[in-house]
Each structure stands twice: as structure tokens, then as C-alpha cells.
Design brief:
Layout lengths: L11 H24 L8 H20 L12 H15 L1 H4 L7 H9 L2 H6 L5 E4 L15 E8 L5 E15 L6 E7 L9 E7 L5 E6 L10 E12 L3 E2 L11 H35 L15 H28 L5 H26 L1 H4 L5 H10 L7 H13 L8
Parallel strand pairs: 1-4
Antiparallel strand pairs: 2-3, 3-7, 4-5, 5-8, 6-7
Helix pairs in contact: 1-3, 3-7, 3-8, 5-7, 7-8, 7-9, 7-11, 8-9, 9-11, 9-12
InterPro entries: Acyl-CoA_Oxase/DH_mid-dom, Acyl-CoA_Oxase/DH_mid-dom_sf, AcylCo_DH-like_C, AcylCo_DH/oxidase_C, AcylCoA_DH/ox_N_sf, AcylCoA_DH/oxidase_NM_dom_sf
Family: Belongs to the acyl-CoA dehydrogenase family.
GO molecular function: acyl-CoA dehydrogenase activity; flavin adenine dinucleotide binding
Amino acid sequence: MAINLELPEKLNSTVERTHLAAEHIFRPISRKYDKAEHEYPKELDDLAKLAKQAASAEKKSDGDATGPKPDTVNGANMRAVLSAREMSWGDVGLMLSIPGRGLGNAAIAAVANEEQLERFGDVWAAMAITEPSFGSDSAAVSTTATRDRGERSDGESYDDYLINGEKIFVTAGSRADHVVVWATIDKTAGRAAIKSFVVPMSTDGVTVARLEHKLGIKSSDTAVVRFENARVPAENLLGSPEIDTKKAFGGVMQTFDNTRPVVAAMAVGLAQAALESYAKILEDAGHDIDYDRPAAAQHAAVAEYIRLESDLEAAWLLTLRAAWMSDNKDANSVEASMSKAKAGRMVNDLTNKVVEIAATAGYSERDLVEKWARDAKILDIFEGTQQIQQLVIARRILGLSSGQLK
């Protein structure tokens, strides 16, 4: 059976619209906000309104579809990776700064029930997982959420959680109006007790302790957020409040199954921008790229271009597969990790090679090449490092637990 790798026509508008935004909004201000770290990109406010209107139109269009339901679908996850790729071609940090499109929004979409999806539909949510005591080991969460139920003096009953702890490397933590916090509801129950909570940033006891100065994606703020008896309603817990030792913390981990392909798509978009610069360098030097000749029979720089281009295409196909599986309710943890691992390694290899091939121009601020190389590094780190992705993949393929393979 032949495989059609063309995108469905209904997704073309998503690609065209987001690429235009990347080209005409992101690219012109990319260097400006790279140099103005922690300054909010006000140019994104109007873009956020347009994105919200487009998302509503797409949702309505999908819901108005008539006729029999297809066996397979291309839905929100496919749109997300397409948008991420195109916008990251413009600027990764700016893409992460668009109001209403935080990593916490993906967590809500992955785990929330229908009532929560409706209630938190218009929020801008950051995601708080990492703590000072751990990095990629998400099961080591020490932030606590303690149940507090009772009756107030006016006779009204309450059912809340009190959250205490500190989170680091919170993307958009100083700008978002909500944050999705990973916390344990019972330290003695291990990873099964880790739950995610939607916390308004205006909640008493929630403070932004500091902003990080970073190597790349400087237009996106990265914050340290502290929680001191931050009180949130029990209904803000995403998923089930029950501790299921058999399921472990699979509910909150579903977030990564959605967000890792998005990060992979970001890497592909950034890599595509760098690859286009590589092609321009070859063109200016008078070297043609001939796909009808073996790479080994062409100029060394051309052969390297062909290798990098094929690596990019492989990463993109893995990303599309992971997103498609998520849209079709297929378990995609392995595929999500495969796409993230491949794309994260690929984008660092490609952007560094372009800096090298561009020579002094690649090392200076004359072009965006050196910035892309700096921005690329984070794409192999956040949402799980390269090593974590390889562990996830190996455990699933070999049928081993986290205790058996570390």
C-alpha cells in the first residue's frame, strides 16, 4: 500500500498563516529581543488575538464536518506541531512567548476533564516541574500539595490544597497568568502520588523569585517560582485525585506525550532556518546541490548539506508520526521520545555545522546563524534531556522498568 506523505488540505491554512507570522513578525524582531532579555515582546499581543480567533475557527470547522467519521484523524496535536515548526523557523523564544500558548496549556489539554477544559480554555499557563534538587527525574518531585477541608466561620465548606515548594526553569513563569504545578499529595506513596494542579499566578503565596539569564531563547523569560501555602481549590487538580500505584503517575506523564513532539517540531523549524542559510552559502560559493549524483561525488560541503537535510527530514517524519498517534488516541510515549531525541540531537548538529561553514559570518552577529546555534541547545534539554529520551525508548523496547534500567 502506498503511503501519502502530503498534508491534508485542511491543514494548509495553518502552515501558511503561521509561516507568515514567523516571517513578518518574528524574524524582524528576533535580534531585538535576543539583546533585550526579559523585555516583554509587545508585538506578540495582536498575534495572540489572531491566533485565538484562528483556533476557534479551526475548532468550529472540524466540528461542522459532515458525513461518516474517518478512521483516522489529524487534529489538535498535528496542528500544534505544524504551527511550532513554522513559528520556530522565525524565532523559538518568541514562539514560547505568545500569550495563551504556554507549555502548561498542553498539560491541561492532555489531562483535564471536560469541565476543566472549559474553565481553563482561555488561560495562559506556564508549566512548573523541575526543582532545585532534581533535573530530568520527574519522579523526584518534592513540592507538596496538602488537602485542607473544613467549614468556614460563615458556614460555607471548603475543599482545597495547600501547595509548598520551589520550581526552577519555568518557561514564561513571570508572564503567564496561570501555572501547572507538579506536586506530591503523599510523599510516602512515591511517584503514584504526583499530581498536576492549575494555579493562578495571582494566588497568595505564589511569587516569582528571580529570572534566569540564559545562553539562548532570551526573548522567552525563564523564572524561579515559589509556593508558600498557596491555596487552590481541589477542583484545580488535573485528572483523578486517587493514588493508583498500578498506573503510577501516568496521568501527569501524558503531558510529555503531547509536548515532546511539539519540542521536536520546534527543533525542526529552527533547523530548517539554518539549513536555508547553508544552502545560500553554497549558492554564493558556486556549489550546486545535485540530488541525482552520489553525495560522495560532490563537493564536501554539498555532501554535508545532503546529510544534514536527510537527518532533518527523518526527525520531521518521526515528529509527524508521534503527533498523528496522539490525535488518534494511540499510545505514543516511545514515538514522542524518539522524535524529541532525534530532533534535539539533529538541530544542534546542524546549527553548529552552519556556524562552522559560515566561518566569521557565522560567529558574528551579522546574521542570525550564531543565535540559532545558541537557541538550539535548549531543544535537546527541556521536556527531558537526550539521555532521558534514550532511557525511555530503551525501557519500552526492552520491556524493562525504571528500576531495572537506569
